[in-house]
Every structure is written in C-alpha cells, then in structure tokens.
Design a protein that fits this description.
Helix content is 37%, strand content 18%. The chain has seven helices and eight strands, in the order H-E-E-H-E-H-E-H-E-H-E-E-H-E-H.
C-alpha cells in the first residue's frame, strides 16, 4: 500500500502531466493530447506533451530527454501508452519498457484499437508496475472528444465563443446533412469542433449532435 507521501506525490505529478496535455488541446489532432512526466527519486527528470500535429507522442519525447535517468523512474501518463502504432513505428509502451522505467501511472485507459488495454498489458508482462485511474475525472476533459469519435465516428461539437482548445470550427449550413458532415470530419481525425451560438447550434441540438 502506498504511503501518504507517495499518494501525494502521485497526485502532484499526474496533475503536472494533465496540465501539459491541456496546454496542447486543439493542436494535436488526429491524436489526443497526452502529457508524460518522468520522475526519479522524487524529482522530475523529463516531461513532454504530444507535439502539434499529433507526433511525436509524449512518451517518445520524454524518454530520450531523460536518458539514463529514466531507468528505475515512474512515468505519469494522462492516457494509456499505445501498445501498437497505426504507422507501425515503435509503440509508447515499448519506449517505456526499453528505457527501464519501473512504474507507470495512467489517468485514462485508451479505448482505441491501438491501445484498448494492450498498452497496460504489455507493460505488466514486461514486469513494470502499472496503476490506472489516478485523476481520471480531471483528465476526462482531455479525451471526451477523442472518446466520442471512437464511439460515434463523429467529433464532439460544443458551443464556444472563441474555440480555445478545439480542433476547428464547424462551419456548415443548418440545412445540410450535419451528421454526414461530422462523419467526414471524424474520418479526417477531428475530435472536438465548435460552433457559435445561433441557428447552426440550435439545429445541431435538435438533431442530438450537440454536446451540452
């Protein structure tokens, strides 16, 4: 069982990882914004967030930055490290294993076909200690659009005044086939789009396509 200090440190470092990811919201589609903080002996040795455009992933930036200090470290990651990559490149779970990371703390499990528990399973099979669900509620806002796209094929649509933290503005005629238009954006990788108040927002709400 973790000591009170360990629990306090876990919350603090995961909070930092979430802050890093929030700073990249709206910049990383088609991939979700992920934060990764590597900690050894109670001190941060490296940190990173998903780069603009979705690559490189947070873990593949933080691990090389930590160098040998990654060995025996704890990685705090806002979303489950991928167990495979759609591009065929080295997965994030592999980066952590090869670096000698000893423990991985995850906020949210990734439901995509390239993770979906596979990242956690791969880490545990390699002997790493893995914990999931820390600050999951705080991390939920990071992935609500991503999860919506995985489940529906469409990006989440919300009303916003300035679009901060969104992938793009949804611009369409209220008379268009809005579900089809949103499906196209989902296929292109968009996860969170916004509209201003008005007729389009009202129509989306009537059709059950607006998240309140």
């Amino acid at each position: 069982m973790a000591s009170p200090k360990q629990e306090s440190d876990d919350i603090r470092f995961m909070g930092r990882a979430i802050a890093l990811a929030r700073g990249r919201m709206g910049q990383t589609w088609p991939n979700p914004a992920v934060g990764c903080v590597l900690v050894r002996d109670g001190a941060i040795v490296a940190e990173a967030a998903t780069a603009p455009g979705g690559r490189p992933h947070a873990e593949e930036q933080a691990v090389p930055a930590a160098g040998e200090q990654a060995r025996g470290a704890t990685a705090y990651v806002t979303m489950e490290p991928c167990g495979a990559r759609s591009s065929g490149r080295t997965s994030c779970s592999h980066f952590l294993i090869e670096a000698g990371v000893a423990r991985v703390v995850v906020a949210a499990v990734d439901p995509s076909p390239f993770a979906s528990g596979r990242g956690v399973e791969r880490l545990r099979k390699a002997g790493l200690e893995v914990e999931t669900g820390l600050l999951a509620q705080e991390a939920a806002v990071l992935y609500e659009g991503y999860l919506h796209r995985v489940e529906t094929g469409r990006p989440m649509v919300r009303i916003s005044d300035d679009g901060d933290g969104f992938d793009a503005r949804f611009a369409a005629s209220p008379k268009a086939d809005l579900a089809t238009e949103l499906k196209r954006l989902g296929e292109a990788g968009y996860t969170r789009v916004w509209v201003g108040p008005g007729e389009l927002a009202d129509t989306l709400r009537e059709q059950g396509l607006l998240t309140l």
